[in-house]
Amino acid sequence: MPLEQLWAAWRNDYVVKATAEERAGTADRCVFCHLGALEEPSQDDGVLAVRPLTFAVLNAYPYGSGHLLVLPRRHVGDLQLLTSAEQVELWALTVEATGAIEAAYHPDGVNLGANLGRAAGAGIPAHLHLHALPRWSGDTNFMTSIASTRVIPESLATAWTKLTEVWPTPR
């Protein structure tokens, strides 16, 4: 099967500008910091759970239904810069998130991942975030395979309701 390429040379200007702004510390206010400042879950903002050092939020650009992010509240982009307490709470909230995904969606599996750095695919590399999303056997269909298009069958509001209804109580 030949590899098809989609050229988007116009994106180079964006990538160069975004990289320069990050390195200079002049990038616009971090959306994750704004969300991390919230004290309670919020359907309007997609925030699912808030802990003292971490929070979980729906991915605004999901790969599929139930795709969420788990993040430290503090603006930090490097795993090694997390405090021990942040590391523990980040993983604990990731475990809670996985439990909520399993209870709400009954998937065949769950993907967990992190894109560390812009070159690794992070859209917001300056604020560390972990992805968690449900997966099903055969969930790549002709739309993804042929048309390179994902069909998300539910709204973010529906996903928020499904997940918050089953979100485990913090221990």
The secondary structure category is alpha+beta
Count of helices?
A: 5
- Main beta sheet, described? 5 strands, antiparallel
Mean pLDDT: 85
Query: Would you report the number of β strands?
Result: 5
How are the strands of the biggest sheet laid out side by side? 1-2-3-5-4
Low-confidence stretches: none
Radius of gyration from CA coordinates: 17 Å
- The CATH superfamily title: HIT-like
The total number of structural domains is: 1
What is the approximate shape? globular
CATH architecture: 2-Layer Sandwich
Straight-line distance between termini: 49 Å
Helix content: 25-40%
Percent range for β-strand residues: 15-25%
Helix and strand succession?
HHEEEHEEHH
CATH topology: HIT family, subunit A
Describe the structure.
This protein is an alpha+beta fold and about 170 residues long. The chain has a single domain, classed as HIT family, subunit A (2-Layer Sandwich). It has five helices and five strands. It has helices at about 10-25, 30-35, 85-105, 140-145, 155-165, and strands spanning about 45-50, 55-60, 70, 110-115, 130-135. It has a five-stranded antiparallel β-sheet with strand order 1-2-3-5-4. Strand 1 (about 45-50) and strand 2 form a beta hairpin. Helix 3 (about 85-105) crosses helix 5. The longest helix is centred in the middle third of the chain and has 22 residues, at about 85-105. The mean pLDDT is about 85.
